[in-house]
Amino acid sequence: MRSVVEIVPTHVVREGGGFKVRRPFNMGKVLSPFLLIDEMGPVDYGPGEAVGAPWHPHRGFETVTYLLDGRMRHEDSEGNTGELNPGDVQWMTAGRGIIHCEEPHDEFFKTGGKTHGFQIWVNLPAANKMMEPRYQEVPESESPTIQLDGVWARVIAGECLGESSNIDTVIPITLIHVKMEKGTKLVQKIESDLNGMIYVFDGGILIENKMSVRTRPLPFGLGTRQAIQNGELAILSEGEEITIQCTSRSEFLILAGPELNEPVERYGPFVMNTREEIHQAFSDFQNGRFAS
Ligand code: CO
Predict the structure, then answer these.
(1) Does any domain span residue 265?
(2) Ligand 1 center to residue 217 CA distance, Å?
(3) Residue 57 CA, ligand 1 centroid: distance in Å
(4) 280 domain residue, yes or no
(5) CATH number of the domain that 161 lies in?
C-alpha cells in the first residue's frame, strides 16, 4: 500500500509568451522521471488576449500537452501541424531536437475564452536522449476513458480500471486524469518499481495509509488517512497500489514513472546529463542542426 510521504505546494509563475501556470515548488527536485508539471490556467482571456509559447527548441526529453479548456495550435520543425481541443493529448518526444510553437488557435485568439490544461515534461534516459523526434496525438474522441461507480478516468498513459492507454512511451509512464464524485473510492495499481505522485487541481482527496504500527511513524501524524487539497502535489511512498477517497467532487492527475538514476543537467528548454551536452545543444541549435 502506498501512502503519502511528502506534500509539495504549488505557486503561480508566468511562462512562454506570458501565460499563467501553477507549478509545484522545487520542480528541479521533483521525482524522476518528471521534470515539470505545469497546470496552465485556468484563465479567462478576453478577445485578442490569449498568449502561448512562440517558436522554441527542446532536446533530451518529452513534452506532454493535455488540454481541458481552450483551443491551441501547434507546429514543429518535423512538419507536424494541428490543433488541440479539450480532451486532446499531444505527446511529443523531442529526442535529439525539435523546434515548435504552441499558440492559441486563431479563432480562439479572436473570441477569447477559458484556457486550462497541463504541460508535463518527461525525462528520457541517457540512451534515448538523442533519439529521432517522435510525435503522437490522441484526439478526445479516441482517448481511452472509463466511468465506474462515480469515478471517471482518462488513461493518457498506463492503465486504470482495466482501460489501457494508446500512447507509446519510451519508459513505463502512468498518467491518468481522474474525476471523482463525493463519497467514491478508487484503488489504483502503480507498479512497485515506479515513483508515484498525485496532483490535485479541484476539490480534495484522502489517501489511505495502511502502515502497520511496527513501521516508522506516519509523516504527518494524522492517523490513517492523508488529505490532499487543490493545488498540492503528493509524493507517494513505495508500494503496489493506492486507495483514494473523495469527500467532495475532485479532480486530479495520477503520475508514475521509473527512477532514472542519472545526472540531470537542465538549462531552459534542454535537459541532458552533462554540461558539455547542454553546450552542444546550444551550439547545434544555433547552427541549425535541430530542424531536419
Ligand atoms: Co515547448
Answers:
(1) no
(2) 42
(3) 7
(4) no
(5) 2.60.120.10
67 CA to centre of ligand 1 in angstroms: 14
Ligand 1 geometric centre to CA of 232 (Å): 24
Q: How far is the CA of 135 from the centre of ligand 1 (A)?
A: 13
- What is d(CA 129, CA 138) in angstroms, rounded to the nearest whole number? 23
| Per-residue pLDDT at 28 | 62
* Alpha carbon distance, N-terminus to C-terminus of the chain: 47
Q: State how many domains the chain has.
A: 1
Per DSSP (E only), the strands in 158-249 are: 159-160, 163-164, 174-180, 185-189, 194-202, 204-208, 225-229, 232-236, 241-246
Between 10-19, 60-69, 91-100, the lowest mean confidence (pLDDT) is in 10-19
186 Cα: distance to centroid of ligand 1 (angstroms): 33
Grid look-up 505546494 returns: 9
Cα gap 122→167, rounded to integer Å:
14
Most distant pair of Cα atoms in the chain: their distance: 61
pLDDT of residue 277: 98
Mean pLDDT confidence for 50-61: 93
Domain that holds residue 204: 4-258
Query: 155: CA distance to ligand 1 center in Å?
Result: 22
User: What is the pTM assigned to this prediction?
Assistant: 0.93
CA angle 30, 36, 40 (to 5 degrees): 130
Place of cell 541549435: 285
DSSP for residue 27:
G
Predicted local distance difference test score (pLDDT) of residue 213: 45
pLDDT at 65 over 50: yes
Find the 189 Cα to ligand 1 centroid distance in Å. Answer: 31
Q: Residue 200's pLDDT band (boundaries 50, 70, 90)?
A: very high
